[in-house]
Amino acid sequence: MSTTWRILMTVLALTVGGAVVVLLAPGGLGDPQLQIVTDGASASTYRSVVGAAGKLPDWLHGPGEHVALAGVLLLVGLLGWTGWTGWRRRTPAVVGAGLVGVGALLAYLTSEGLKLVVDQERPCRAFDDVTTWVPCPPAGDWSFPSNHSTVAGALAAGLVVLAPRLGFVAVPVAGTVAAMRVVAGVHYPHDVLAGLLLGAATTVALLLALGPVGARIAAWLPGRGARVPGAR
């Protein structure tokens, strides 16, 4: 891929991801008012999902609370395995795995910043008549976007680029992580969708932008293997 195309694709990934996140943000960005979402498709879907989840047996609530975290840890494990395999075989996949890890961290920090900008109340506080699987986070622990979904989206997108066959596992796991945050009652659907897109856009843009740097680092490894995605 030429430098020009790499730059264009990087800008496109960030622009599309950022634009969708802004469109999903209640009140847009920069509105100083506390955002309390009680109307619209996302709120309606939340009530339906949480209502159905509340009818499930109580013994499912405890394990269900930890599904999202388990999914993120599984994605971290897959990324670690990909990086270890790259190191053992002396291929640039080890560099790519490192870039994905950095992308996930950057996406998480961005999501934390967005929470402070958007100030959206948790749905379990906006609706006082819902029963959730987990205790509602304290006041000031904002809802938009979902951190779990952001990290899951970043890791899954990176794995799809680095090892496409792992995408058949990574993408459903990331989707499950996002869905379970809604089922548990602590996020709206638009929170988790924004998180997935934010994470994916950040990681893909980083891989595109730093592919050549990764290729040069990988060249120091003994042996010869596959190229870093995005590198010439």
What this model shows, in words?
It is a single chain. α1 (3-24) runs antiparallel to α9 (189-218), α5 (93-118) runs antiparallel to α7 (147-162) and α5 (93-118) runs antiparallel to α9. The longest helix is centred in the last third of the chain and has 30 residues, at 189-218. By secondary structure, this protein is an all-alpha fold. The chain has 9 helices and no strands.
First-last Cα distance: 6 Å
- In round numbers, the mean pLDDT is 86
What is the succession of H and E elements? HHHHHHHHH
Q: In percent, how helical is the residue content?
A: 55-70%
Identify the overall geometry.
Answer: globular
**Separate helix tally:** 9
**In angstroms, what is the radius of gyration?**
19 Å
In brief:
It is built from nine helices and no strands. The termini are close together.
Which features would summarize this protein structure in a list?
0% strand; mainly alpha; 232 residues; globular; single chain
Summarize the helices and strands and which ones pair or pack:
Layout (H helix, E strand, L loop, with lengths): L2 H22 L16 H14 L6 H5 L1 H22 L4 H26 L4 H4 L20 H16 L4 H17 L5 H30 L14
Helix pairs in contact: 1-9, 4-5, 4-7, 4-8, 5-7, 5-9, 7-8, 7-9, 8-9
